[in-house]
Design goal:
Elements (H helix, E strand, L loop, with lengths): L1 E9 L4 H17 L6 E9 L2 E9 L6 H12 L12 E7 L3 H7 L7 H4 L6 E8 L8 H18 L6 E14 L2 E14 L5 H16 L10 E4 L9 H4 L2 E2 L4 H4 L20 H19 L4 E8 L8 E5 L8 H11 L4 H8 L28 H4 L4
Parallel strand pairs: 3-4, 7-8
Antiparallel strand pairs: 1-6, 2-3, 2-9, 5-10, 6-7, 10-11
Helix pairs in contact: 1-2, 5-6, 9-11
Amino acid sequence: MKKFFTSESVTEGHPDKLCDRISDAVVDEILSRDKNARCAVECCAAYDRLLIMGEVTTTAKVDYEKIARDTIREVGYIHGSFAYDACKIDVAVHNQSADIAMGVDRTESADVRNSFGAGDQGMMFGYACRETEELMPLPISLAHKLAEKLAEVRKNGTLPYLRPDGKTQVTVEYDGKIPVRVDTVVVSAQHNTKVTQEQLKEDIINNVIRAIVPPQLLDNDTKYFINPTGRFEIGGPEGDSGLTGRKIIVDTYGGRCAHGGGAFSGKDATKVDRSAAYMARYICKNLVASGLCDEVELQVAYAIGIAEPVSVFVNTFGTGKKSDGEIADIVVKEFDLRPYSIIEALGLRNPVFLQTSAYGHFGKSGLPWERLNKADALKKYL
């Protein structure tokens, strides 16, 4: 059956993503000095001001305002009311709640893996499929690459009239579960006052879209919408407020599968919102790579202060070589889902989070949860 699926992405200069990036820059800076720090840092940006807020427990001394201004400058906000050297910054950060810390620091068991509880309750999801080399859905993969290319041609001077804010969207046509063509591409790119809309459209199609989307997926019926409103000169926090954690579908799988209750950016790995979602992706990717299934969604759920997950659920959408229940049993047997073990297995006390703050948390090479080092071991169940 012919069907269509759409996913979107945004550039690092989008106001929500800018907030994610500042939050993760703070987390990485703190973890580089104190690997045992607890962080829950959020930002809110609007017009000419930024609020950095949240809870941090650490021995490290960091300059929150300097981290924020450096990040804003690196993203490209060097003009206007939200320029890195012009915006007003307020900091409202205090220690982590003792009630929350008590749940993570439980010591009833001599085994730290059992005494180290989840930092919160909630459910987290992972997903993988065979649509792309990185085992991600094609629509979100293309949307991320287009957004990243939009930033690249701005920064390297190919399209010097571009500004940091931008959004992309890709609609893929499927024949059953097989992607066959790109039906629609939407790109909204902030720009200066000098470029014409005709020039911008031509440049975006030639230097961004055709540079990223494989030519065999484009045809004469593919539709292109470039800056559909006709003008996009006011962008970033000047044009719209931003908030950490507001692009959760952009961060994950583009709407292809379910999403848990929490965002990722600004949190250290004791927060299972982040660490368990990374572990779930790691598991799903290795399950698909092993041949146990061609597509899989995994849910894990936790109670605050408890190490073991309260549930593990698998859905292979009919592609499993074994039943979903059997694959769930394999997951529990082969992967340690206690928070301490996740942190150790994926190296999440290291400052690895800034690189996830834009263009997705999944499908990128070099991230520890994208490794396929368990796939061969899982083949014994085939």
